[in-house]
């Protein structure tokens, strides 16, 4: 788990916490399934809030695709989540 801050458009900043996320497996199923699907999960607290929303969750697959839910159903599409994604990628490239 890690922590860093990012700068966002419109004089906003985000407090980012990240770590590995994987699906919950029951103890008796671990013998049958060896493929563990891990993603990087990011929880971003934006200050000041955007349209009343101050917390965002983003997930990045090993292939580099970004989603707003861990089941990969909702892709990153709106303006603020795209700005968050770009700021996180920029921070990861510089470190």
Short description:
The protein has 95 residues and is of the alpha+beta class.
Account of the protein in words:
With 95 residues, this protein is of the alpha+beta class. The chain has one domain. Helix content is 17%, strand content 43%. It contains one helix and five strands, in the order βββββα. Strands 1-2-3-4-5 form a five-stranded antiparallel beta sheet. The longest helix has 16 residues.
- Biggest sheet features: 5 strands, antiparallel
Number of domains: 1
SSE series: EEEEEH
Mean pLDDT across all residues, rounded?
Answer: 88
Shape: globular
What is the fold's blueprint, element by element?
Blueprint: E1 2-8, E2 12-22, E3 38-50, E4 53-60, E5 66-67, H1 79-94
Antiparallel strand pairs: 1-2, 2-3, 3-4, 4-5
């Amino acid at each position: 788990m890690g922590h860093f801050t990012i700068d966002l458009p419109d004089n906003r900043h985000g407090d980012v916490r990240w770590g590995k996320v994987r699906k919950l497996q029951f103890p008796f199923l671990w013998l049958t399934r060896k493929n563990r699907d891990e993603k990087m999960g990011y929880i971003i607290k934006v200050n000041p809030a955007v349209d009343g929303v101050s917390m965002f969750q983003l997930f990045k697959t090993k292939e580099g695709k970004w989603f707003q839910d861990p089941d990969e159903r909702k892709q990153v599409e709106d303006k603020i989540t795209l700005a968050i994604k770009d700021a996180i990628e920029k921070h990861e490239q510089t470190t």
